[in-house]
Amino acid sequence: MKTTVYILLAAVLMTGCKFSKSASKDLISGLTTTGNGLTSEDVYLTVNNERTTNTSFSYGEIVYLVFNDVKGFTAENGNVFPLMEIIITSLNGDTVLFAGDLYSEYTEGMKYSPLQLTADVTVAAPIKTGGKYTLNVNIYDRKGSGTFNSRLKFTVEGNENIKTEIAGVTFNEAYIFSQGNNKVINDNKISFEDNIYLMVEGLRGFKDENGLVFPGLSLKGTDSGGNVILDYPDLFTEYGTTGVDVADFVTNVSSHFKISGNRFSNPLHCEMVVWDKKSDSKLKFTTDLILE
Fold it and tell me: Which residues contact 185 (CB under 8 A, 6 or more apart)?
C-alpha cells in the first residue's frame, strides 16, 4: 500500500513541474545549444542576410545568431522578459568581448508570437585577423529560472585581395571600408559616388618625438587602361611640421576617395603608402577594386 501511494505522489509532482531540457549540435558549423526551461525551434547564423554554416568570417563582417520561436519564459500580463548576453573568448580562454543585458530597453517586456531573438557581432577590434575565438550567447528569463545557451568556435580571416609591404613597422589590420554601406568591403566591389576608405589600424614603428609622429601619406589609382584616376603625393603635408598624436595615429590611419562618372576600365589599382618623415619606416597598401 505504501508503495502504491509513493508512485502516485511521484506522478503528481512531475506533472506539476515545468520541466524542459534540450541540447543540439550542428554537425557542419559545430554550433551547439543547450536549454533548461527555455527552448528554441531553430538556431542558425546569418551573414549579409543569408543563412550560413561557415565558421570563418572576414574581418569587419557582421554575424547574426538567430533564435526562432523561443518558448518557456514566465509571462506577466502576457509579456515575457528575456535577458541576453554575448561573451567572446580567445583560444587561451581570455574574455575578448562582453556585452550583457542586450534587451534591457524592454522594461515592459515583449509580446511577440512566435518570439525571435537575435544577437549580432561585428568581427572587428578587439577581435583580430588570424585569431581563433569562441562565441557564447546566453539567454535568461528575468522572471523565472529558464536558460538557453549557444556556443560557436570561429576564426577570422583578412581580405586576400589586399597586399601589404612593411619596413620597420607593424600593424594590426588593413581593410577597405564603404561609408555609403557602412561596412567593410571584402569582395573589393565598390560603387561610383561612394566614399571609400583604405584603413590601417595599429600602425607602430614611427619615430616618437615627445608623443608625436610625423607621417606622410600618398594615394595613387590607375585603371586597366593606364589612366591615372587618383594621384595625391602627400595627403599629410600639414603633419610634416605639426605632427600627429601617437595614440591617434596608432588607432587608425586612412585615406578616402570617391569615383565619379562612368568612363572607367576595371579594375582600379590603388596604392597607398604611409611613411615616416623622421625615419625609414613605412607601409605600402595595394589592392584592385571593381567599380559597379
Answer: 159, 175, 176, 177, 178, 196
